[in-house]
Automatic annotation (TrEMBL):
PROSITE patterns: HTH_MARR_2. GO terms for molecular function: DNA-binding transcription factor activity. Residues 1-141 form the HTH marR-type domain. The lineage of its organism: Bacteria, Pseudomonadati, Pseudomonadota, Gammaproteobacteria, Cellvibrionales. This is MarR family transcriptional regulator. It holds the Pfam family MarR_2. InterPro entries: HTH_MarR-typ, MarR/SlyA-like, WH-like_DNA-bd_sf, WH_DNA-bd_sf. One of its GO terms (biological process) is response to stress.
Amino acid sequence: MDDKLSLQQFLPYRCNSLAQRISVSLSRIYVRQFGITVPEWRALVALAEYGELQSKQIAAHTSMDKVRVSRAVAIMTEKGLLNRRPCDRDSRAAFLTLTEAGLELYRRIVPEALDWEERLLAPLSEQEQATLFGLLDKLDTRLAELSSD
């Protein structure tokens, strides 16, 4: 059998490995400097970007499972970063927004995150960065097509 698989040449592995290493590296900033986890950061960004959301919407925007979102929301609520407004149609659901403390934390973290991203992308020219993001968009679109089959 000539069909061999090398993990280093297998796109799903490479993407997952890179994403995991990026997440670990970024989590050092979030945990050490700001005392939040990556799931909390993702929820924070989603709420800052989209405004009022339910947990299921945060899960959709961040590609996190519902359990991780639920844990992050519970911790963020305890820390005073989130407001919860009950949903009239579903007693199990709530609408979530950032408190002033949540918005302030977001404003403090964003420059650090963007600086880190800039340092990561530094070896790539602007054209290479544009190409990279264009290719990621194409793969994202194709994955959605394959997932709907």
